Amino acid sequence: MSTQEKKRQEHNKEQQPAEAAKTLPWWRVVLDVALLPFLAIITALALSSIFIIISDTELLALWRHVFSEPGVVLSASLKKLELSYGALISGGLGNPSAIWDGLRTWIQTGDSTKLITSLEGIDRTLVYSTPYIFAGLAVALGFRCGLFNIGVEGQLFVGAMAATYIGYSIKGLPMLIHLPLALTAGALAGAIWSAIAGLLKAYTGAHEVVTTIMLNYVAFRLSDYMLTGPMKRSGFNPVSPPVEKSAWLPKLAPDPLRFHAGFFLALIVAYFVYWFLWKSTWGFEIRTVGANPNAARYAGMSIAKNFILAMAVSGALAGLSGTSEILGVNHFMAQAFSSGYGFDSIALALLGKSHPLGVVLASLLWGFLRAGATRMQSAADIPIDIVQIIQGMVIVFVAAPALVRMIWRIRAIAEEGETIFTRGWGT
Amino acid sequence: MAPGTLDWATIRHRYLRREQVLGIVYLLFAIAIWTLFLPHVEAGAKAKFGLNVVTGVKPIPVPDLVVPARETILLLGFIAAFMGGWQLSRGFKEPQALLAVLLVIFLLAFLVWATAGKSFNLTGMLASTVLRATPIAFGALSGVWCERTAVINIAIEGMMLSSAFTSVVIASATGSPYWGLLAAIVTGAVLGLVLAVLAIRFRVDQIIAGTAINIFAIGLTSFLSHSWLSVRQDLNAAPNFKPIPIPLLAKIPVLGPMFFDVNLIVYIMFALVIITHIILFHTRWGLRMRAVGEHPKAADTLGINVYLTRYISVTIGGIIAGIGGAYFTLGSVGRFDEVMTAGKGFIGLAAMIFGKWTPIGGFIASFIFGLADALQVKMAILRVPIPSEFLLMAPYLVTIIVLSGVVGRAVPPAADGQPYVKE
Q: Where do the domains of chain A lie, and which CATH numbers do they carry?
């Protein structure tokens, strides 16, 4: 370690007064940090009730009589909301009494079928949250460098394509080699794809928001082409051949549950991102560039290098998101296999305050919402797009703390650490 | 900011290098034209371009344009090579405009190559270029209005999508596209106001606020289209705006079908380009807008209400994006489909940047994007040996190339994206 590096690390400590100055008990800190996101979610869920009510045409017709028979209208609406949110919770977590019942039967008789069916809700939540963790980390890492990577969706497709190709084209490899190879291919492809945007930003000043969105569309067309051409399985449907078993992420639960090792991989990667950002020199540089590019330049850091590096690592995480979905759940690639994980990830990074732990928690919540929304669609007939509505509102509320404070009439709690997200057009 | 804020020596160094790089890029265009297209054209093959349209008001007929394919491609390549040489030795003053010319030359060479030995209706394609450029131009104009007062509007896409939705529902319910257009204007204004409040009152990061509006718009329109329009099909069948030929002018060959036989929303676009130009550069209000965008503090000192100026401009920007959204439904087939804007709002932003934050520049840039888009559609008819997916990528790739500013940096309004805090 050179002295210069040590100095940098000391400087690093000084740079975070928000973390250093915390003499409050830890639970107060957690409360302060978690309060606003929590209120943001509560507000968003409360407001989405409106959309649940208007999506029901019969209920909406009933609202015409709200002045003559307010009791009937309100009780019908509450019933609908109870049904919807009940489905949301049972779809995402399962029924506790059923789980308890299943557990007892299993211990007493050794028959696990009941237990397994009762765990389907949790299983779905964990499986859904796996790609979210990767994708959320991708956006969060970008934010830390002052980059807004909206291209996660495209990078996810490219990563999935590469992993699928390695997964089905190479045969007869042992799993110990094949699986890491496929994972690396996915991460690498995502990294290369997003590094294009990083390069353009670093050397030409093209804003990453627009270039990554354009690269998304290019990636979608590319995957259309691959799945209808070179990567097409023989037959009518535009899907890839099945991935060899040796490249599957091992399944950790019996059928029909789908829980796979990808979830633990995601947790490990989340820890790695934490280590990378806060314990490594590269991460320190990335955060410095994000916090103040001018200061970083005067300290002798290359802004171009850090833009490209941050974009590439972010893309690798995005690539892993698609890869885990292919190798863990689908085991082949189809058109539009990802239903917007990439766009959801923006809300995740904001909600998790661009911190890996926050992103993991936010992803679990999002996995739960998605699993629940699926049940809401089947049980209460509410289109799954409600998730996106909730997301849009969460982003607004998290990005505008003043708005949440105004709604809930709370004063500014602790001094909020200035989180840098993006800056201007970069020109 | 970020990588651009370099000290003067670096800027000069980079600028000098850039001019040479440009010359080489021009030469590469020439080489690309020769190597990509020339070897695949048989000697003596002719490309026939139809100049007459068969639909609408028929303009005065003119003879078709028939050119020898090989020679034309050679010539176009020579023009590009000459421009490259000139740039390397002498240097052009307006390299931004030159890149536009070069892109058009490249597209022409592509067209001649694709048409060699066949015939192709050029006027039809140009007319469809105008139609495809329209939503992009609305996006660019919306961006100009917002960003000239230093509010970045990345939510154009979401504004267009929402307005496309409301316009089709209202127009279907009332049976009149004019009510639909009004609904689109109101929707755009409301979303513009939301962006303005978030960006000005709450000082939310403008790009994040815009992204939130985009995600919200995609979610809400998809949600309502699933829950409502799928049940009430009658609300998704709007009367659309029909082309209105202008007497005499519509009879002009080639130009008539392009500019004088289009529907109301396209005419509105033409008018808005001119109106925006006049307001921005020839009125007191425009001067204030530009002052607020360049140096809000100075403007404030002189007694200009910075916040009010921004609120009004961003709302007008929202209205323009809203009219652009109505074009997707009322200016077309009168139906709403999920996520039908397909990135046009973002391409509009790129057009604005390419046009250097000016309405006329933005319009010309939109025209080039529209040309790439129209070509991509017509190429399928000519059976070009390129998979359609790659042709579909063309407009997006052009956007990336343009944004990366192969030609000099476009300079945004100085205060772009920064919230203003009154002291």
A: 36-73+125-408 (1.10.3470)
